[in-house]
Amino acid sequence: MNRREFLRQIAAATGCVAGGLLTGCAHVGALGTKLVGRGASIVFDPSDPIASAKPAQWAMEQLRQSLVGRGFAARICKRLDEADPGDVCIVAAGGTSSMARDVGVLPPADAEALAIAPGRLARREVLLATGSDVRGLVYALTEIADTVALSDDPWPALRPVKHIIE
Questions:
Q1: Quick check: 10 pLDDT over 70?
Q2: What is the dihedral of CA 108, 74, 72, 159, to 10 degrees?
């Protein structure tokens, strides 16, 4: 699935939620409401050279700002255990990092490849954003940031059903 398809699916899902066609969702907010009191943590390993690179740090800050703009109390953490237990956790990792391997989703080895996938890390649900290189990770993080910022409801961006591997 490419980025354009992903955004179309998110828009369609958001429209269905707004129309009341979906039930049993983990969160269905009123359109335009902010998720006050909801936390989000962007977690990265400082020993990961891809996630620690300046462009990746910039992209994490862009994602944090998108989340804050949607009413989340968002922060960037250097360890998973720094995230509050109720936070949505977004793990930013290089494709060869231990975090990406532990979640079990790796991007293709091609330059600028990315993967965005739900998973589990240390018995916690996470959204993994990973790249084969710095540019791939930046693409993954900014894809999530753009979807959070532009969708009527940010939850589909933070809880995708399918893996996105490009």
A1: no
A2: 20
Q: Is the pLDDT of residue 22 over 50?
A: no
Q: What is the pLDDT of residues 125-137, one digit of tens each?
A: 999 999 999 999 9
Q: What is the 3-state secondary structure (H, E, C) of the chain?
A: CCHHHHHHHHHHHHHHHHCCCCCCCCCCCCCCCCCCCCEEEEECCCCCCCCCCHHHHHHHHHHHHHHHHCCCEEEEECCHHHCCCCCEEEEEEECCCHHHHHHCCCCCCCCCCEEEEEEEECCEEEEEEEECCHHHHHHHHHHHHHHHHHCCCCHHHHCCCCCEEC
Question: d(Cα 57, Cα 44) in Å, to the nearest integer?
Answer: 9
Q: What is residue 29's predicted lDDT score, i.e. its pLDDT? A: 35
